[in-house]
Amino acid sequence: MGYRCMLWLFLLCLIADQGLIKGANGLACNWGTRSTHPLPANIVVKLLKENGFDKVKLFEADPPALKALGNSGIQVMLGIPNEFLAPLAGSVQFAVNWVQQNVSNYISRYGVDIRHVAVGNEPFLKTYKDKFLQTTFPALQNIQAALIKAGLGRQVKVTVPLNADVYQTDSGLPSGGNFRSDIHDLMISIIKFLSDNNSPLTINIYPFLSLYADPNFPVDYAFFSGSAAPIVDGSITYTNVFEANFDTLISALEKNGFSSMPVIVGEVGWPTDGDPHANVEYARRFNQGLVSRILAGQGTPRRQTPPDVYIFGLIDEDNKSIDPGNFERHWGIFYYDGTLKYQLNLGNGKSLIPAKGVRYLQRQWCVMSPSASLSDPNLANSINYACSYSDCTSLGYGSTCGQLDARNNASYAFNAYYQTMDQRRGACSFSNNLSVLTNVDPSQGTCRFGIMIDLGKHETPPKRSLAGRNQNSVLGLMALFLALIFIVCSA
Ligand SMILES: *[C@@H]1O[C@H](CO)[C@@H](O)[C@H](O)[C@H]1NC(C)=O
Ligand SMILES: *[C@@H]1O[C@H](CO)[C@@H](O)[C@H](O)[C@H]1NC(C)=O
Ligand SMILES: *[C@@H]1O[C@H](CO)[C@@H](O)[C@H](O)[C@H]1NC(C)=O
Ligand SMILES: *[C@@H]1O[C@H](CO)[C@@H](O)[C@H](O)[C@H]1NC(C)=O
């Protein structure tokens, strides 16, 4: 290889390394693991990488997820659930152990690129009342002390993901923003602490919830393409609630002397089921608007530098609490198994790529027996039983399966149970004779009757179906790279 050619090669590597080839702005998302059948962690990490996500947020130190993220090139924000706040606040030693076991260990032994520890999850949410007011700040301080003790003070930053309800505006305009009066002083103490430690503030913003909570909320204003009902705030005109909400926070920070405080958007997204406003069309519209801003590096009127934005979420979680609403289990850009819900334009001609190599249970469904009667006295109890152990949130009003007739409705519930129970023998015998197995997919229209992911929990090994081919993409890329060098060098 000639000297000129080596130079070219060097330059190529340099460009590739700077990310200039793959498009400079990476995406970030939340990876929740509250599923009865979590998509295998190595498949999720591949899914993240293939779709250009270079930052991920976890809600807890899930060992399979962390191990799979080792040496992946993906930066990790690692969450600590709220139930840990009290013990963390009460004991520095507890924090030292937590950091040792859940941070240091994964950095040194597995090569996980942990950049942030997120202490608690929306601990000051109004609906929690005062439950975590006393413990959050001391827990944050103890984790910070533990990180310093572990020699990770520079590398790993602390933060507290807060719901946007920690600030408000009395004037109704973003410029009137300030922190909620009941937690104002606490917020200032926490922000000062974060600022002193070069750490960011993390805020979750949910335009969907604005719409969900207020039937009179102008739908258009929830999306980035909104144009109706703009809000005029001095010289600024806001056409979407995301910018207005974010700038309300920026105003609050400015008012309290933290105008250059770095801010991360920890969660933002749109669900596809479980509510009339939660559907594929709205979710695609919202997330496309969001992704386009991120890729364009767009800030808001009050803050030109764009924040890191973690989309919520990557995949659906069928075991999440539905206290906030049925939509909670449907925030994924992808379904539970990594298949596509809708397409997104990711710039440079790229679009979403579904998960590969997922193993499924056999292609069979449990449905209401054709010979069973709708007036069978055991039917209602059987449906209730099925739905108490599996996810029936798609059956609700305005949801994807909300239009089913009573018979198909029962079938949906029976199948949800059967799949969640790994198609086990006896899991399709409601009241002995109300249900039967079928090989014909009962899905209709938008209503999907799923087949569960095979986690090896069933009794008889079914025929393995491999969705999608194995990836030869790495080899392909290498070949392309070599061909390029050949062309360059022979020129
Ligand atoms: C689902 O969540 C509940 C409550 O958090 C938990 O007790 C249960 O073990 C979970 N089930 C599965 C299969 O993960
Ligand atoms: C590490 O984190 C997990 C999940 O958050 C938790 O169950 C475990 O107790 C933690 N380890 C320590 C030593 O606190
Ligand atoms: C189902 O079984 C019950 C008793 O378990 C019986 O009374 C009923 O007639 C059976 N129905 C059918 C359709 O076989
Ligand atoms: C379908 O099942 C759900 C869940 O059990 C129930 O709330 C709903 O009323 C049922 N709808 C019909 C048409 O039977």
Automatic annotation (TrEMBL):
Its EC number is 3.2.1.39. Residues 364-449 form the X8 domain. Residues 1-23 form the signal peptide. GO terms for cellular component: plasma membrane; side of membrane. This is glucan endo-1,3-beta-D-glucosidase. It is a lipid-anchor; GPI-anchor. Keywords: Cell membrane, Disulfide bond, Glycoprotein, Glycosidase, GPI-anchor, Hydrolase, Lipoprotein, Membrane, Plant defense, Signal, Transmembrane, Transmembrane helix. GO terms for molecular function: glucan endo-1,3-beta-D-glucosidase activity. The keyword Hydrolase applies. InterPro entries: GH, Glyco_hydro_17, Glyco_hydro_17_plant, X8. It catalyses: Hydrolysis of (1->3)-beta-D-glucosidic linkages in (1->3)-beta-D-glucans. The keyword Cell wall biogenesis/degradation does not apply. Belongs to the glycosyl hydrolase 17 family. One of its GO terms (biological process) is defense response. It comes from Turnera subulata. SUPFAM superfamilies: (Trans)glycosidases. It is found in: Cell membrane. Pfam families: Glyco_hydro_17, X8. The chain crosses the membrane at residues 473-490.
